[in-house]
Amino acid sequence: xxxxxxxxxxxxxxxxxxxxxDSRMIFPESAKEAIKRxxxxxxxxxxxxxxxxxxxxxxxxxxxFDGLICGCGSNIILFDKKTxxxxxxxxxxxxxxxxxxxxxxxxxxxxxxxxxxxxxTCIDKENILPEADGLIDRFKNSGYRFIDDxxxxxxxxxxxxxxxxxxxxxxGFKKYTSSEFTYIDREGxxxxxxxxxxxxxxxxxxxxxxxxxxxxxxxVFGDGNNDLEMLNLVKNSIVPKxxxxxxxxxxxxxxxxxxxxxxxNAMKHFELI
Length: 273
Prior knowledge:
Elements: E1 9-12, H1 29-40, E2 44-48, H2 58-61, E3 67-70, E4 75-79, E5 86-91, H3 96-109, E6 111-116, E7 121-123, H4 133-140, E8 146-147, E9 159-164, H5 170-177, E10 181-185, E11 190-195, H6 200-210, E12 218-221, H7 228-233, E13 236-240, H8 245-250, E14 253-255, H9 262-269
Parallel strand pairs: 1-2, 1-12, 2-3, 7-8, 12-13, 13-14
Antiparallel strand pairs: 3-4, 4-5, 6-7, 6-9, 9-11, 10-11
Helix pairs in contact: 1-9, 3-5
C-alpha cells in the first residue's frame, strides 16, 4: 500500500505514555485532541503496545487510531478509515503444546506469569503472586474470556509477563525459553517475554513497509524498557520525564509527563499538529 511521501506515522505505547501508568489510567483530553488533529492532517497513528488486543480498553481506542501493533509486535491490525473494519495483517502464534510446557517450567523456575493471547488472558492459578491481583481483576472485568487453569483446552499465549522472587531461577528460565522468547527486564521484579524476532521495533518496520514509507517519517512515544528497541530504531523518539532511566537515555526528545500534556506538547514541538 502506498501513502503520500509526507505522511508521518506516529506509534504510541500505552501505559505511562498515552495514559498514566497508575491505577487511575487517565487519558488526558489534550492527548486525544492531538491525535485527532494529526490524523486530520493526513498522518497515521498506531498504538504500539506490549498489551495484546483484548487488553486494549475501549476508552483508549475511542480516541481514534489507524491500527494496532499488539503483543510486542506479534499481532498487527489495520483499521479501515471508512468502514472501521479491522484487518489482521500479522499474528505470530505459539502452539498450545509449547505454551503448556512453558507454563510448567514457570512453576519449576519460580516465574509467576500472566499469559496473554490475542483474544483472552490466562494465568496459572497454582503459580501466581498477589502482585497480579489488580491486573487479574481488570482482565476478569474486561468482557473477554479469562482462563486460570493451564489444563484448560484453550490455554495458550502469544507472549507473557510476570514477577520473580529472590529464589527464582531467572537465568535457567531465560536459557530454557531463549530460542523462542526474548527476556525483558521491566525494572523491579517484573519481567516481560516477547516472541523471538518480534518487538515493537519490528512492528514499526512492518507498518512502514506496508505503507511504503521511510523510517524518518516515523515518530515513537514510549516510557519503559520494553520500548527501547523502537526508541533506538527511530530518530524521532519521545519519552516523558517519568520514563525509565534507559528510555530517557534513548530519547531524542524528552517531553512532559502524560498528565502534564506531554503528548500534546511533544506533537506541537514536532509540528505534527
